[in-house]
Design brief:
Length: 237
């Protein structure tokens, strides 16, 4: 039987936003299953595994690692209540770049991996009755402001994925939310070749982490399908 302390998988937990999410959820009593290529990085950030937190080797380009991660999580905790996909890739591929290799990587990390993890978690989320899937999509999944077609198209697809999960899971008590921030003050944002604003103007990762927790905790009858978060003027709004 599920306990009152939810179990959440967090992909991309060793990244800037992922780290903030883990910190936020830990502070509020969640039990966490964190996947990363380098477990050492997780230990350095969060300390050793505990009764409330486990680490699992996870590589988006190795399909079997997703199955192993979800399976270990279910066996360890006996339940899975939510999935937070903070994993993401921002390799630059423009309209005129004949670069299928990097384009394929973008689709694998930004779309196929969140889909694969959601599919594997779905039976447990259904059992929970109030399962949650949170995808970190970006405002890049709502509008295009540059020619980086690889990132933009995969983020639009990630938005579509979120709504597909939302539709599939609604009658099963599952709620899916796409969190779409503008510039976030992480290494990815700070080093982006398309960056237009100064670091002090960017969204702090802790703010995104707070929104993730909000989406996890909203009741089934007050779900938010999309959270759009801007730090500069957006005519989208």
């Amino acid at each position: 039987m599920a306990t009152e302390r939810p179990v959440i998988l967090v992909s991309g937990s060793d990244g800037g936003i992922g780290t903030a999410i883990v910190t936020e959820l830990t502070a509020h009593g969640y039990r966490l299953s964190l996947g990363a290529i380098e477990i050492k990085a997780l230990v350095e950030k969060f300390g050793p595994e505990s009764a409330d937190r486990i680490y699992q080797p996870f590589n988006a380009f190795e399909r079997g690692s997703a199955e192993a991660w979800v399976d270990r999580t279910a066996k360890t905790f006996g339940q899975i209540d939510g999935l937070v996909n903070a994993i993401g890739l921002a390799v630059r591929v423009t309209i005129m770049d004949d670069n299928d290799e990097d384009l394929d990587k973008l689709w694998e990390v930004n779309v196929k991996t969140p889909l694969r993890l959601a599919r594997l978690c779905m039976p447990y989320l259904e059992t929970c009755g109030k399962g949650r899937v949170i995808n970190l999509v970006s405002l890049g999944g709502k509008r295009i402001k540059n020619v980086t077609v690889g990132y933009g198209t995969t983020k639009f697809a990630a938005m579509g994925l979120t709504h597909a999960i939302r539709t599939y899971g609604w009658d099963k008590g599952i709620r899916a939310t796409a969190i779409c921030p503008g510039w976030v003050k992480t290494n990815m944002g700070l080093t982006s070749p398309t960056r237009r604003i100064q670091p002090e103007q960017m969204i702090d990762p802790s703010t995104i982490a707070h929104l993730v927790r909000t989406a996890l905790e909203l009741p089934n009858n007050a779900a938010m399908a999309e959270m759009l978060v801007n730090c500069e003027f957006e005519d989208l709004f």
